[in-house]
User: What shape does this take?
Amino acid sequence: MDERSGPVLALDLGATRVRAACVAGDGRLLSRFEAATPRELGPAAVVDAAVGLLESARDAVAARDRRAIRGVGIAAPGPLDPAAGRLIEPPNLGPAFRDVDLAGPVGTALGLPVRLERDTHVAALAEWEFGAARGCTDFVYMTVSTGVGGGIVSGGRLLGGPDGLAGELGHLVVDLDGPPCGCGGRGHLEAISSGVAIARAAAEAMAAGGAPGLGARATRAGGGTAALTARDVAEAEEAGDVDAARIMERARDAFAAACVSLVDILTPQAIVVGGGIARNQGDRWLDPARRLVAQTAFRVPRERVRIVAAALGDDVGLAGAVPLLRLATRTPEGR
Amino acid sequence: MDERSGPVLALDLGATRVRAACVAGDGRLLSRFEAATPRELGPAAVVDAAVGLLESARDAVAARDRRAIRGVGIAAPGPLDPAAGRLIEPPNLGPAFRDVDLAGPVGTALGLPVRLERDTHVAALAEWEFGAARGCTDFVYMTVSTGVGGGIVSGGRLLGGPDGLAGELGHLVVDLDGPPCGCGGRGHLEAISSGVAIARAAAEAMAAGGAPGLGARATRAGGGTAALTARDVAEAEEAGDVDAARIMERARDAFAAACVSLVDILTPQAIVVGGGIARNQGDRWLDPARRLVAQTAFRVPRERVRIVAAALGDDVGLAGAVPLLRLATRTPEGR
Assistant: This one.
């Protein structure tokens, strides 16, 4: 078996679930295990759980595959340091996870080389290898979910910046007078288009007393202005609620503006859009972006770019371990 | 003499001036000629003028240098196709310059290899080689002048995208409800922070009758709401005019927001800022960007990034010919 096409172990460490798998070189999951992330027990417990799931994933495959495993690819929430294999200060995991070594203990326990990358970068690699960005040299991956994140591939390379942190697309400023972002900024894409932002906009509309339909829905959902999720707001729009429609339209317009910025700056062949909100909305989410890009981006890139839904589902963070383990070590090239 | 360090011929084709020089490998101009761009006579006349200036620049240097000249580097307004050596449809030159072959006739006339790049990319290369971005692997060059443009260097490479068109930083959307941009978009950086945008905002304020100080200045300048330039507005702010201050502050705030976007997305070591407006304003222009980045960008990149004035002056487009001629041909790399 070619060493570059052999199976890999994959770990997707999320804020709520840890998933582990043994993945064949063609992206098929040969085994798959998952559990709730024991976040409240701290980093050591999370690493133990991850190692346990990886061992299960390894032991569940045929001996021939097991012997051919070439390494472990880990997807985890950013910001993280891929070269050092450590988390930096991931807000989604909590303050206890600051500066935690993930690659070291996993590699020691499994006796395999380990490569760690930000979850959105791993998803970008997976879509590049197996999904909607196959054949591209230049594309942008965006995920619109609880938060907004992304990854950039330019000139055939994942764009990492000096320390692998680049591609934080949720923090594009699209409305400089806009609502505050969790990061301290204002009018960032994530502050308007993310699930958290949509729910917050609904809560604010209810608190201001101007959204009777949303208010009635919140009462049915258990009361309080914080009772509605982004999905509730999307459903209210479907049901004809004008306040919900205004909030969702704003979220889609901000996303569309970000796409124009990305098309003009990066001139990608594709913008691949994943994440729960984009997936649930489908073309309703993507069409305003396609229209605004067609109307206002530069001619050559706008005529080329495809704005499309991600092809891979929830296991995108596992499939991405295959291309992740093929990446050359990131060292800045000389000119 | 090492072929890679020998002198080059440089051409900087601007909308108002054409400049040509023979440039030593260390960036010194060994000769320099310039003339008004005969735009109104059409592309053939402009190419003739350029060739004439290049021949003068070549013939003015010592025979030893002349024999060592290794090629011609051309900076011209975008969008252009570097691989084909052709202009695409440069708005600053006019519709007659659509799809004009520049590299071909210059190469034939001079008997030398030619490389064409967008003026802002050449400026970025010059600042990288000789100026404020020396030693960087990752930086952003921005020019704030009549328009707003830029170039991105990431991982030690000029980021060109599939066809060399990437890096159009003037078209970052920073205010999705903002004023219209010349490109058809809305709220682009160029629509708020460029010289044209500042002058237009002043004209609109005067037309609305709410800017008496600017109106008086316009009358002194020859009357009419279009009588003020961005420099006039900046001077009015210096003199204490509140309407001018509001317009200039908005321009600086939009620029600052764009810098936050660029720091979070590209995590550069430096943002190098050139162009007449930024140069005239100095730290007054850069400080709001430094503050907003320090307050709201992600920790690792914000602690690293320097936001600094460009080190090279008007001849940046000539000095950049040296690194331009060293660039590898742009072909998308395999992974």
Q: What stands out?
A: Chain A is about 40% helix and 20% strand. Chain A touches chain B through 61 residues (CB under 8 Å). The first helix of chain A runs from residue 43 to 59.
